[in-house]
Design brief:
The structure is a single chain. The protein contains 1 helix and 10 strands; from the N terminus they run ββββββββββα. Strands 1, 2, 3, 4, 5, 6, 7, 8, 9 and 10 form a 10-stranded parallel beta sheet that branches. The protein folds into 2 domains: 96 residues, E3 ubiquitin-protein ligase SopA (Pectate Lyase C-like, 3 Solenoid); 78 residues, E3 ubiquitin-protein ligase SopA (Pectate Lyase C-like, 3 Solenoid). The radius of gyration is 17 Å and the shape is elongated.
């Protein structure tokens, strides 16, 4: 029998000291919790919210995130591509996502707001209709990525090939488009 937790609030729990219970967490809130480096595999989070949590280097094999919001969380080195892709829907606000991998995921309409995405891997990811609002994308990897209708207008430090990605109707600001042209070794004055 699977454990089921509904409308619960968890505050200041350190899951490095004791194991998180396997099961389904539905409409739950996690505040100031530490998941750093733990195995949080085969857990389902449905319509949950994580606020001020640390997920750095957490192993999330077959973990489901369905309509889950991360706010002010530290998610360094998280391999989201190992999560359960079925109905995967996540959003990020004020998060640290350095070295995070979204490799080959289908996450259209994902919101990244004021996030640090340095060295994040979006190789072969479907990001269609997503928004990167005020995000640092320095050294983020976009290769064979679907970026159609993605809004990059307020983000910065992105640099990727227009030929190796699908960018139809993507939105960019004049001020930050330089990274898209740098491979051509042209001078923009």
């Amino acid at each position: 029998m699977t454990n089921f937790f509904e409308n619960e609030s968890y505050s200041k729990l350190d899951f490095t000291s004791f194991q998180i219970q396997k099961g389904e967490y539905d409409h739950c809130t996690f505040l100031d919790c530490n998941f750093e480096g733990i195995h949080a595999s085969n857990i389902q989070f449905v319509e949950c919210e994580f606020i001020n949590c640390n997920f750095s280097n957490t192993i999330l094999t077959n973990t489901a995130f369905k309509e889950v919001a991360f706010k002010n969380c530290k998610l360094i080195g998280v391999k989201f591509h190992e999560c359960d892709p079925f109905l995967l829907q996540i959003s990020f606000k004020d998060c640290q996502l350095t070295f995070t991998s979204f490799y080959q995921l289908k996450i259209p309409k994902t919101n990244f707001v004021n996030c640090n995405l340095e060295y994040a891997d979006f190789t072969e990811t479907v990001l269609q209709d997503s928004v990167f609002k005020e995000c640092n994308l320095k050294n983020a990897i976009f290769e064979n990525t679907n970026l159609e209708k993605v809004d990059f207008r307020s983000s910065f430090n992105y640099k990727f090939s227009l030929e190796q990605n699908r960018v139809k109707n993507a939105l960019f600001s004049k001020e930050n488009v330089v990274g898209l042209l740098s491979q051509y070794k042209i001078i923009i004055d």
